[in-house]
Protein 1
Amino acid sequence: MIRVPASPVRDRALAIARRNLVWLPLLLLLVWSALPLLWSLAASLKTPLELYQSRSLLPEQPTLGNYGRVFAWPGFWRYLFNSSLLALASTAFALVISSLAAYGFARYAFRFRNLLLVLILVPRILPRASLIVPLYQLVERFGLLDTYAVLTITYTATAVPFATWILAGFFAAVPRELEEAAAIDGATIAQRLWWVVLPIAAPGLITAAVFSLREAWNEFPFALAFTTSQEMRTLPYQLFLLRDSVGIQDWPLMNAFTIVTILPILLLYLRFERHIVSGLTSGALK
Amino acid sequence: MTTPLEHRRAVRRKRWGTALTLFVLLGPAVVMVIGVLGYAVVSGAITSLFRVEVWTLGTPFVGFENYQRLFRSATFVNSLTRSLIFVAGTIVLGIVLSMGFALVLHAVRWGRGLFRAIALIPYLVSGVAAAVMWRFLFTGDTSLINMGLIAAGQQAIPWLARPNLALVVVTLANVWFISPFSTLILLGGLQGIDPQLYEAAKIDGARTHQCFKHITLPSIAPMMALSFMWLSFASFNMFDIILPLTGGGPGRATEVLAVHMYQLAFRDLNYSTASAVMVVLLVINVAFSLAYLRLFRPR
């Protein structure tokens, strides 16, 4: 075997190669994560004629016409309202319910505490699609099919475990001394939770809120199974139906619709990105 | 001075007070989660022991007959096999990608926040939207993939019309959709490792791959277990991507268990067999999580 003598030149070449080694996977990450979205965005800015006739990568004459067609789509504003209402309502309920539960888990030692914590997490491993079969019969019996109530309740129920899990980690990290000081001044548990614990755990609340909003905004199986009338549709449900109702595939419209449904949650995420990642990595996973 | 009796009463009152507080704190969450989701599971498990079909009068108790019929049915066995391939493919590709991405995101110094944000984009998109985007990538002559093939002098391929290729596309879309969350989990694990461990190993003359094997992997074993669990649960239960992307087709090539269950219940109106599929899914998920917990047990 021939041993190449170590030389400064070779060492420097190796060092440069190693330093640039990180860029290759990084490029792969960018292409893999962003390409489907960018390709969809590009198509949404093309006219149907351009999309089908020229094989252009980028729109030659960018147009917002497809977005105009999305906003003019029958019922679009109603579906937007439904999606927003359900996301906001279920997130508000989920935050209240899981703040209370997380405080209980973080501050009290009681029998079956760990068992209960696990039991609350178990539903996370169940397919949403598998819950719709038994829940459908229950919902039907109570006459709740096709109501905001059934979707709000089921969205809240599916958001509570994850939110509780995140918040319990944050609440446990709030120093007890602060609460004791407040208690000496005569603060009740509710006051301590509202004025001491929640403000300190704000990043946890933001994380839980964004994930809950994301889940409700994007939810599909429950909306598909529990609603029947057109007035109750949500945006993802309508996007699913576009496939059938457009007949010949109107890709510019479908892509514009897709981008419209993604945009709100994407902006929300980018606004709170810092809090969310620190919320996930520091609060819950330890 | 308080007498012992008064003292005991005070203690008891305090204990009742605590119990009441806990009841108020935990009650709503327990009612929501165990009342709604727990009810669904128990009720589904019970339904799977009866025959609840649209063409059967009444709901006779049939024991495990639904399960026996299930495992003799060709469509169920097909769904089970397709699911296993789909899940195995997702886990292998998903764990490699998310581990690689987590390492890169951890190593990169410049623009870390931006790259991290981009890496998490697919997780923010709805399953339906992801399905539309992936269908657009692969369908027809105007799709990016086929345009690439044509530009390279090849024929366009009808990806979603070929059973096995459709399964590949569905698996890729699924990896795209669910692996960002496991990237995030693993990144959290990497950030929790004490940098002094690496410095100490460097002083002892350890090489990069040795550091990875003996420091990185053992330190993030719990996060690896979580990632594996997430990837397999999310794929076994995947419904949102597949129904809009292929509808389970062509034929039944991409009809994984969750889609099969949905079709049984809402197309065939056969609730009891659909419930049996739900219980099978539940058992598989629990078995997988126990296996992972054993595999990644802290040593």
Protein 2
Amino acid sequence: MKNLSQAVASQLIALVSGTLFGLGMMISGMVDPDRVLGFLDITGAWDPSLMFVMGGALAVFMPIYLLVIKKRTAPVCSERFRLSNNHMIDKKLVGGAVLFGLGWGIAGICPGPAVTSISGLNPSMLVFIAAMLLGMVIANLAVNKYGKTKPEKVGVTARS
Amino acid sequence: MEFEIPWDALFGGVLLGLSASLLLLLNGRIAGISGIVSGLLKPENGEVLWRVLFVIGMVFSALLAPKLGFELPQSLPVSSFFWVGIAGLLVGIGTKIGNGCTSGHGICGMGRLSGRSIVATCVFMAVAVATVFVRLHLL
């Protein structure tokens, strides 16, 4: 049954992908806020490592996306691509980026490293994560209450 | 001035790129951690299990990595509960409103040449740099 094997495969992929992602976090040093802040501290003792993290990631992802993924009408193990249909550069985008940048700059922690670090049971990290989840809930309520609906993710082909 | 390529950083980045490629090519989904996590807070049909598995993978990797010689940091540079709390709130609100973070916009979005993601990444990078500058050099 193609659908069942697809369903199982896609869950396995999620697990494998998550593991690769976490390994990427650990090996790259992104889980070390000291290193992240060292990259962001461009006027101080600048540590350019993060540039290579993003560079390495894009060097792999961009060609695969542009040459392989974009040409497909559907993913390999799933019915459709879930890609954002929103192309507007609006206040929400910029405002959100400003707030995220502020938060990231304060502690040098962003969602990826935070989730990867859970098993360390560092109390400060756990507080960060709890606060992050709270922030997401608050933002969700605010967005729902104050109007502009979040753009729906629709099943568009990677081509659009 | 001697400069050595930080191979760990580069290789880690390659793994991130591989992870994102896999998730998008096979599952059709964006490896944006803020989106994956926030999707767990508002569970929808068919949207929960894969996210849980992805997160389990991430958490598990931190138990695997030490065998390869990569550990979690012992301490955090900013550890006061107040400040990490503020930071976490800002990150949570910002990534939700802005629809992404360093992985979602910075890797997947920019990798797709999305104008939105390029703008978002430039903005949060600039603000983060400015924030660090103020905190470390002005205050």
